[in-house]
Structure formats: C-alpha cells, structure tokens
Design goal:
alpha/beta; 10 helices; 40% helix; 15% strand; globular; EC 5.1.3.9; NanE; Putative N-acetylmannosamine-6-phosphate 2-epimerase; Aldolase_TIM
C-alpha cells in the first residue's frame, strides 16, 4: 500500500460509514468533468458537505482522490467487455490496482451473469489484499449468494440495470429484504433526492450511495430543463 495515506482499520471504516452518505464521484464518461483533478475536487467538496465516504471509479481517479481525503473510499473499475455484460471490476488485476492505490472497500458486480472471473475468486482476491468487499447485486437471490460467500457489504446497486426498462424509483423492497436476511446493506441506485436517501436508511440500509444528483451536472441540469420545458404558463 502507498505510504501517503492512513489505512483505516475495518472497524474504523464501518464506524465512520454507518448511517452515512457515500458520494459517488463518477462524472459522465468523456464529459467536461471527466478529469482526475476535477474528480478529486468533487470528492473534497462532497466531504466538506458531510459525505461519510466516497465511491470512486478508475485507478487514475483513485490516485487523485486518495491523498486529498481521509474518508473511506469504495473503489471500482468499469470496463466494457465484448463477451460479458459485467462492467464493475471484472478482473483480478483490476482489484489489485485498486487495492494498491488506497481503496478501503472494493466493489464488484455480484449478479449471476456471464463473467470473466467468478464472484468467489474476486472476493478471495479482495480479502487477500486486505480490503473489504462489496457485491453490487440486482435481486435477493444474488445478495444471499454473496452473503454466503462472505462479502462484507451487499448493495442494491444493480437492481433495475440487468435488462428491461429502468425503473424511476429506488428498490426499497430489496433493501428491506437484504436487511431482513442479516446483511450489511448499501442502498444504491436512483436515490436522487434527500428524501429518498433518508427513506433508504429508514428501510434498514446501513449506508446510502448517491451519484448523479451530486456529481453528474449534465444529468442534474437535464432534470431541471426537461421539467421547465414541460411546464405550462399560468
């Protein structure tokens, strides 16, 4: 591990994240904000605003952010593969790169789809490298499988994103089901207002991740412009 940051113990990570907001600082790909130094500035601003932790995509972004903040970081690496729908941290080498550059938690796709590396092998690599492991799942069955394997956190991240129309509302029921099964739960996916984020905690989530509503200005601006365009003058 790099010596430029203080490595938090696992207990410290959970203590600092509990009932907190994780800000996902993932700009639109190839957009004007898609630059490691801008991502680092976003991350610092989110921490100033009270974010308990961050979700950061990509090694270069992680390298830029890690020295600037002292909150826990959930790190991922996204890839578009020709032979698999798995995008989130698909390879063992990705896990190694994220661990080497300061990730506290590494998230991987926990869905039951064709993948280059088994979920079990990904989990083993994360734990071998001393990081906590999070599974991004789409349904209860996947969450139960990842819980049985030994993931430290199970997230509702992929609910609504594995086929068919994407729902507008978050999957509160999945959060409730994960919690009822005894998981440490990350609510993630379409929590785009403070009220929805608060409702996630009320449903039993241990923490909640918010992305577009905080750090994707293109998306946030479009919500306003579309609403204004649809409005009818009195």
């Amino acid at each position: 591990m790099s010596s430029i940051f203080h490595k938090l113990s696992h207990d410290e990570v959970f203590s600092r994240l509990q009932n907190g907001l994780i800000a996902s600082c993932q700009p639109v790909d190839d957009g004007p904000m898609d630059d490691p130094q801008i991502v680092a500035a976003m991350a610092k601003a989110c921490v100033i605003g009270g974010a308990a932790g961050l979700r950061i995509e990509g090694v270069e972004n992680l390298k830029a952010v890690r020295p600037q903040v002292n909150v826990p970081i959930i790190a991922i690496l996204k890839r578009d593969l020709p032979d698999s729908p798995i995008r989130i941290t698909p390879f063992l080498a990705d896990i190694e790169a994220l661990a080497e550059n300061g990730a506290d938690i590494i998230a991987v796709d926990g869905t039951q789809r064709v993948r280059p590396v088994s979920i079990a092998d990904a989990l083993a690599k994360i734990h071998q490298l001393g990081c906590l492991a999070m599974a991004d799942c789409s349904n209860l069955q996947e969450g139960l499988y990842c819980q049985q394997l030994g993931f430290d956190i199970v997230g509702s991240t992929m609910s609504g994103y594995t086929g068919g129309p994407i729902p507008q509302a978050p999957d509160f029921q999945l959060v409730k089901d994960f919690k009822a099964a005894g998981m440490r739960v990350m609510a993630e996916g379409r929590y785009n207002t403070p009220e929805l984020a608060a409702q996630a905690i009320a449903c039993g989530a241990d923490f909640v991740t918010v992305g577009s509503a905080l750090t994707r200005l293109e998306h946030l601006t479009s919500w306003f412009t579309e609403a204004i365009s649809a409005a009818k003058p009195i």
